[in-house]
Amino acid sequence: MTSNDIAVLRFDHVSLAFNEGKKVIMDDTSFSLRRNTKISIMGQNGA
User: Fold this and answer.
1) Which DSSP symbol is given to 6?
2) Which pLDDT value is given to residue 41?
3) By C-alpha distance, which of 39, 44, 40, 46 is closest to 24?
4) How far apart are CA 32 and CA 7, in angstroms?
5) Which of 12, 17, 27, 40 has the fewest C-beta atoms lying within 10 Å of its C-beta?
6) What is the pLDDT of residue 44?
7) What is the pLDDT of residue 33?
8) Which of 30, 29, 27, 25 is CA-nearest to residue 42?
9) pLDDT for 18
């Protein structure tokens, strides 16, 4: 295991919504962010 394989931030079963729960952004999402990686979060229209 290299230092790049180590998760520096981990999310387990995260849900995120706004507008009193009417606009769901994430629902029961799990993921890890690893050192020296690049990520993007895109919506349904690719923005």
Assistant:
1) S
2) 78
3) 44
4) 6
5) 40
6) 78
7) 87
8) 25
9) 92
In-domain check, residue 28 = yes
Number of domain units in the chain: 1
Does residue 40 lie in a domain region?
Answer: no
Report the b/e string of 12-47 with b at 16+ CB within 10 A.
eeeeeeeeeeeeeeeeeeeeeeeeeeeeeeeeeeee
Domain extent at residue 12: 3-34
User: Model confidence over 1-47: pLDDT tens digits?
Assistant: 666 678 888 999 999 999 998 999 889 999 888 888 888 878 778 76
**Tokens read off for 15:** 């849900």
